[in-house]
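seq as requested:
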Amino acid sequence: MSFRERLQSWRYNLVPDHLVGEILTKRWTDNAIPFLALVVTLATFGSIIPGFFKLNALQESTRQLGEFSMVVTGMTVVMLGGGIDLSVGSIFALSCFSAVYVFFILEQSIWLALAASLATGLVFGAINGYLVGYLRLRAFLTTLVTFIFGRALFDILVTTYAADVQLSQATSDVLDFIGDSTFWGLSVSVWLAIILAIVTHIALTRSRPGWHVLAVGGSRRSAHNAGIRVRRTVFMTYVFSGFCASIGGFLIACRLSGAGPGTGLNLEIMALTAAVVGGVSLGGGRGSVIKGLMGAIIVLTMTNGLIRLGYGTGTNQMVLGIMLAVAVTIDIRWLKNRHKVLNEVYVAPVYLKMGETQSAVPGSGTPYELDNRLSEADHIGLGELEGPEDVILDRDDNLYCGTRHGEIVRFFAPDYVRSEVFAHIGGFPLGLAFDKSGNLISCVGAMGLYSVSPQREVKRLSAETARSWTSIVDDARLRDPNDCDIAPDGRIYFTDSTKRYDAHDWALDSIENRATGRLLVYDPKDGSTKTLLDGYRYTNGVCMAHDGKSLFFAESWACRVHRYWLEGPKAGTAECVIRDMPGYPDNINRASDGNYWMAWLGMRTPSFDLSLRHPDMRKRMTRRLPQDEWLFPNINTGGVVKFNEKGGIVEAMGDLSGGAHPMVTSMREHKGFLFVGGILNNRIGRYKISGADPNWTSPASCWGATS
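struct tokens:
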């Protein structure tokens, strides 16, 4: 290895470039920016303002926060539904006045004052909801009109009844408790805001009405086509916003025991800024209540902090305007360009120098020398199939295969002319195996491990495994389960080719060539799935050894086969038994003579081997060239190889004509014939094996002559 290549190896193999792309794909990254802004805001004002975090100051701030958070929660729900509510300040002020009027002027109970406050908010919210939801008026203009009308009405009422409120002698212990008392160090308003936030969050994420709000905010047309009552959903978001603003108005009425000209002034701007700064999208459908609350804390801390530093109202408004402009710009630009950023940074190739290999060219005289025997194979299902990646036969000699349409097709023995859809699973059924009870186990790309009973009942066995807490990569979900086999004790061993890409993105995984493949086991006794081995380059085939004490699995992009020991002194360890093959290995299955069949899905080429030593070139290639011009593994020519227990190559065969089975992903021996499948083929091949045992079957080899 030259010094330059050594530097490339250190640069691309030791620096975890892929973590940037992984982080950007996570949903929690949308929360990271507002959370970071929250930490910076609290740290900044806490350090420059003496006593900022003292108990008395915090209690007063949290009372304001409780009232403000109520309004922000309502605004968040409206924005998630694709709307905007500029009238929340007016509703807040009018609800405050309603409570003050009923309690101090009419001298009614505090509970009647609460009812009056809620009624005010619900009525104005219903007006907004009816105009925007049912009459389909513009939300911005409609709520702006409501804001102007509500603010004018509030100013008139305050001017008219201010003296009466001041002269009132009404008192209430409940009012004083709500306005001034604390519970476990927090004011009543904060506890109410927390309860409301929790209930709203659960409703949005765990209930049908909440899902409808998010669906409507994401796309009203799609929501309507899906049968969601869009107008009613929009109506209810505004009613809820009015309800939240009225609760906040009642709380400030209890805290101040009155209402003044400044009540709720500019509250709509503060609430809108808080929601957007927290990460709630103006376009709707994206955000959460938690984000809104983070934004509320940021905005309230900022405004109160500036006031305590001696800055006036004008400065506060200017800062809010700047914050809103920046947040809106980030929201729009990030939402529009996120996929472009991911396309630029997600694929992160590594350096790999492939070992020298023996030739597979006819006449080369090596054990890997391919011949043209597979071209003699008969065709089954020609033109009826698309993508029979794996093939398998049952005890009655019937033939099964998966298709890219999500179906498992059964061809009936003995001539395999008549067929039927045995089961519809969905996804792309790949590796197949029969268990002792006759259930057909299948690895389904991007879906997981499934079972189909003899009665055709489809059951999902596993879709995830335990999450590795030390890994940024989400390795819990089964992204590309590829092949499976079953041990004598019933445990199902299967390969998950990559943790970073789905099955249809195999080309990206080959170009990146990062070791993210793994070997897993599913235990039917407790339904658990565990990762046994990790860190392989596209694990792509697995087969139990004849003695049931070990298994073989293929590592495609590294052109290697490994043996994993289940029992004995090597139990729990793996060793490489075949390395540096000229072809990319795929499924592995037993042979009748005690050896093993292995598929080659493609052949190595000098150009791609060379590209693996230049990760920077591969990175530029994925960013600058269309995908049909990329350099990736050759999968147009492959073959079938037989190897023994120690990894020695026994024979190799192919289809040099390219007319029948140039690309092979699986093969299965059964009663003297080799049945051949290919993920890009439109047929299954049946080849007569010279000298093979005409009575040997895979089910009998695994489970005995009788079930």
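The radius of gyration is 34 Å.
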